[in-house]
Write a structure and sequence with these properties.
This is Transposase IS4-like domain-containing protein. Helix content is about 65%, strand content about 0%. The protein has about 110 residues and is mainly α.
Length: about 110
């Protein structure tokens, strides 16, 4: 419906393909606009992606550290790594994966 509102699609093409669409039911106790609730729901995808990067690409799901100061330093460095991951992702624009870029940089 957003595409119809932005005039990217017509109502006729929407009605034509509406049989192919799935249905999504969200139950919420938020006193918000339904569109805002849907957008909040869609944002969770980015959080899940960040955790996936943190766990798999950065391999930072286990620390084995016992000292609090070392653990805080470890978490800070992982946060910086995650930040750099997303900065690289914004710069490469689909030509390479972040893993490819990190592999190339590791050879320097």
């Amino acid at each position: 419906l957003i595409r119809i509102h932005d005039h990217a699609r017509s109502r006729a093409s929407f009605a034509e393909k509406s049989g192919d669409f799935g249905k999504l039911y969200l139950i919420s106790d938020l006193d918000e606009d339904p569109e805002r609730i849907y957008r909040l729901y869609k944002q969770r995808e980015y959080v899940e992606y960040a955790f996936n990067v943190y766990k798999n690409d950065l391999e930072s799901d286990r620390s084995y550290l016992r000292d609090d100061h070392m653990l805080f330093s470890y978490m800070f460095l992982n946060l910086l790594s995650l930040y750099l991951h997303f900065q690289i992702l914004n710069m490469i624009s689909g030509k390479y994966s972040v893993r490819d870029v990190l592999l190339i940089l590791s050879r320097i």
